[in-house]
Amino acid sequence: MKTECKSKQIKFQELGSRKVVGKFDGGKITSDGGGLLLREINRRTNVIKNFSQCFTDYRDPDSIEHTVAELVSQRVFGLALGYEDLNDHDLLRSDPLLAVLCEKDDPTGTSRKCPRDKGKALAGKSTLNRLELTGLDADETSRYKKIIANSERIDDLFVDVFLDSYSKAPDRIILDLDATDDPLHGNQEGRFFHGYYRSYCYLPLYIFCEDHLLCARLRPSNIDASEGTVQELERIISRIRKTWPDVNIFIRGDSGFCREEIMGWCEAHSVGYILGLAKNNRLNRMLKEDLVDAELMYRTTGRASRIYTDFFYQTLKTWSKPRRVIGKAEYLQKGPNPRFVVTSISGEKMDTGQLYEKLYCARGDMENRIKEQQLYLFADRTSTSQMRSNQIRLYFSSVAYLLVSALRRFGLKGTKLAKAQCHTIRLKLLKVGAQVRVTVRKVWISWAEGYPFRDIFHQVFENIRKAPITIQ
């Protein structure tokens, strides 16, 4: 026996006269010791619990060991902690800390029924994939996949989380719209080549309000970037106005959303808008004199110069009426840079410079939120063959975003990480080495003594404990 143990030692280069020897015998140690903060914020918001209630489970209750809530928790916490693939869970299922996050009564898995599952409290990939791959026609008679996701209820959940995050109705909200590419590397359903992005991809539609995610809709890429926007706005805004009937609502987006259908709908439903407007020869001519003045200012000062003006403009064929356009006559070192936006906001309420710089340009923060979700919460892992299952994967990523966003909003307030993106939060707060010991009465978590952010960790924990319970 001693010989067997000795053969598993890893001998590194010496440290002076000392040998440096390693073995995988440290006991139950996790690299995700900070995940308990996610559990605390989830307990305050009930985001995962409410998400799990959007699934219908046709499995026999007497034959299962993992509830839908536990399966959903495992997948969402896994994404938030940086594990993008289902394959990762064949090893993660043995992590007692992840089992604690998922509210498993037996975090060590010692009471599992099947001998091969002993010591593995959580589900493996073949069980988890049923959350994604179950078809709409599944029922009690289906053989394996019997857990159906209800897309309409999930869509409503995002809006409910947003509404419940406010203690009182705001005076005004701005909904940011954007479409982005989700590159594909297989033969997925709905796969098309997109000329602008020069790749095969999906073209998901996102709607945010500040850092709140309200919509993540997966779409094929052989469509206009604005397609389906009116339907999503109808759904979201009607739900918002049932709770906040007097709130002023505006939408904001780039020129891909400057469409008659969208602007006409907004005007008919008392929704304001400020949208990018693609430049053309007619618009450039209307800004010609201001561009000359901007160039003169640049030549005089040597600094970038901008002149704002507004006028009413109507396209020759597509717009139903003239609308207010803000023109930015800008001259840079590389030359003229004219830009335009169209808006329903009158000049009496906000001048041209403020409207463009303070209001329209603020939409850039939404792009950071999309990058967070795609790059760090793996919204682009849409590799199943069916579009429905890929949409469900996008839902899981979106719920992971809700969880991390709530941690940032409630837990990181007043700390140095208050505006940190999720990968920084994960690196500095969640990826903490810890030993896990489970006794009859307690689960002991012993973090690494050398952890450099322990003061912030304590502050975040206290912030979460003081945060209001936002969703029942």
Structural notes for this entry:
This protein starts with a helix and ends in a 6-residue tail after the last helix. It is built from 18 helices and 19 strands. It has 472 residues and is of the alpha+beta class. The chain folds into two domains: 29-151 and 377-432 and 444-466, no CATH class; 165-375, Transposase Inhibitor Protein From Tn5, Chain A, domain 1, CATH 3.90.350.10. Strand 12 (248-253), helix 11 (260-268) and strand 13 (272-276) form a beta-alpha-beta unit. The strands form five sheets. Strands 6, 10, 11, 12, 13, 14, 15, 16 and 17 form a nine-stranded mixed sheet that branches. The protein has helices at residues 2-7, 35-45, 47-52, 68-80, 89-92, 96-101, 125-128, 130-133, 151-164, 229-243, 260-268, 281-286, 288-301, 352-360, 364-376, 387-411, 422-430, 454-466; strands at 10-15, 18-22, 29-30, 55-57, 147-149, 172-179, 182-183, 192-194, 199-202, 205-209, 212-217, 248-253, 272-276, 305-313, 323-332, 335-336, 339-343, 434-438, 443-447. The longest helix has 25 residues, at 387-411. Helix 2 (35-45) packs parallel to helix 18 and helix 9 crosses helix 10.
How large a portion of the residues is in β-strands, by DSSP E? 15-25%
Number of strand segments: 19
For the record, what is the CATH homologous superfamily label of the largest domain?
A: Transposase Inhibitor Protein From Tn5, Chain A, domain 1
Q: Which descriptor suits the 3D outline?
A: globular
Estimate the mean pLDDT confidence: 93
Measured between the Cα atoms of the first and last residue, the distance is: 54 Å
The CATH topology of the largest domain is Transposase Inhibitor Protein From Tn5, Chain A, domain 1
Structural class of the secondary structure composition? alpha+beta
- Percent range for helical residues? 25-40%
Low-confidence stretches: 1-6
Please give the largest β-sheet.
9 strands, mixed
